[in-house]
Design a protein that fits this description.
Largest sheet: 14 strands, antiparallel, barrel
Shape: globular
Structural class: mainly beta
Strand content: over 45%
Order of helices and strands: HHHHEEEEEEEEEEEEEEE
Helix content: 10-25%
Distance between the termini: 34 Å
Amino acid sequence: MSLHPFFSTRAGLFIYWTAMVLFWGNSVSQGFEASSGGELQLLADDILQPGDPTPLTHALSDPADLFIAEPVPRYDELTTLVKAPENLRELMKPVIQLNAEHIADGGDLPLTSSGIRVSLPTYPFWGPPPPMIDVGYQMTWLDSPPALALPDLFHEYRFGASWIRLISDEWKMRVWAGATFNTDGENTSGDALFFRGGLFGIYSTSPEFEWIFGVVALGRSDLPAVPALGLVYRPDDDWSFDFTFPRPQATWIYERMSDRQFALYAGGGLNGTTWAFEEPNGRENQITYSDWRLVMGWESTPLAPPGVRFAPGTRLKIETGFVFARELEFERFRRNVSLANGWTLNGSVSF
């Protein structure tokens, strides 16, 4: 089974991506107008994947901040909270994110990826926050030497659902599950189907400290799951220190304007994806790209009201850093390949 010829060529995919960026980038450049939804990043796809440097705790905490009005009700009040938020119409609109990344390594095996994700809130039948549905598509180019005889282009089709609930004044529970279909377009067997998900407990007794306990299913053949453990420390409104494995990060908000805020951050972590592909002789195989990285970045987000960490609106992020311990791992037939260290430049915009 092959994909449509337009999406099987680098030129076609580059035109597709460029058209989207030009169209949406125009609205971003005109003052970062408020968008119709919140930053609801709710899948395991949001972390540890090429092109998306989202910290783990951002994927865990945002929905409650967006859907539960301040001050946050106590647990006994939440058990009877059935009235929808006043801004339900705005919060029910989908959120779209575009992302792109390029890893340069001096010509050994450069990697380029880009994609789109759409987050769809469902109706809050059990009170806010509601379950979320996410769909997405990611494409990755591997500029490999002819001797490796690898496909140039890989595809990822994503679908998932997630939910966060307040269990008590101190505890939140976060669960999500999804599937991805990762293929070169030729090997569409069961090798291309992967499960991603996670289960977390989030414990906090004060605004300054938040403890994370859980596990993440990565959907990778070499590393099916990792623990997600750590502490988030926020000493004041400008600084936050996320000591959560597998992607720690320190963030400094250096400027606030009437409707936006700007931040610098530094962090690191692991990254990677597994795809199914067809060997030149027709045999089916799997390939996993993996790396570790140290990065720094800049982001622009809507200014949140006092006591709320996230607000609906357009979000822009640009990141660069050092990429090391890069490797291609094969499920069968081939030996693993160690790659040269490189440098990443990536970014995302959501609205």
